[in-house]
Amino acid sequence: MKATFGKYTNRLVCHLHxxxxxxxxxxxxxxxxxxxxxxAIEAIESGIQRVYNVFNWIWFDRRTQKxxxxxxxxDTWGMDHTLAHIIHPMLVQLKATNHGYPSDLSEQxxxxxxxxxxxxxxxxxxxxxxxDYYEYRELGPEExxxxxxxxxxxxxxxxxxxxxxxxxERMTNGFKLFGKxxxxxxx
Length: 187
Fold this sequence. Notes:
- The protein is mostly helical.
- The protein is 50% helix and 11% strand.
- The chain has helices spanning 16-25, 36-60, 79-97, 107-125, 161-180; strands at residues 2-5, 67-70, 134-138, 150-151, 154-159.
- Helix 1 packs antiparallel against helix 2 (36-60), helix 3 runs antiparallel to helix 4 and helix 4 packs across helix 5 (161-180).
- The longest helix is centred in the N-terminal third of the chain and has 25 residues, at 36-60.
């Protein structure tokens, strides 16, 4: 697999009025402090933005983000694992740079959901997570290799089925949350 993504297309936007108001009044409520001179700057900004809009129409609005994706046959053999290599670091970066959260959630709830999704994909990348719930030892010379509990010359000596099941259910929940909040995964 090879994926190359160019930058998102950009547009020119005049921020003359915003910068003036921030400089003059700070980040407080502008409407309470706006004077007639501020309206003049707003009109100037509007004129500049009209010029920008013509340039945006000519140059930027006709461009699209460049995306090239090549999928090799082996990429789909274990597609869940292949995609986890991409999704996990993207979720980690999104959590680190996130500037918002879905409107139906609190910031803490979104943070917890992000943690669960990150954890689930992190576990998917661990090929041996199930080994945390089983322990084997080599069969001794006196033990039969045909014993039903033996596997490739190993004997199961400890197993935590409930722990493994809970681990798998938590992973599944993280993947469900990823699907449920897929359209909220942007910064």
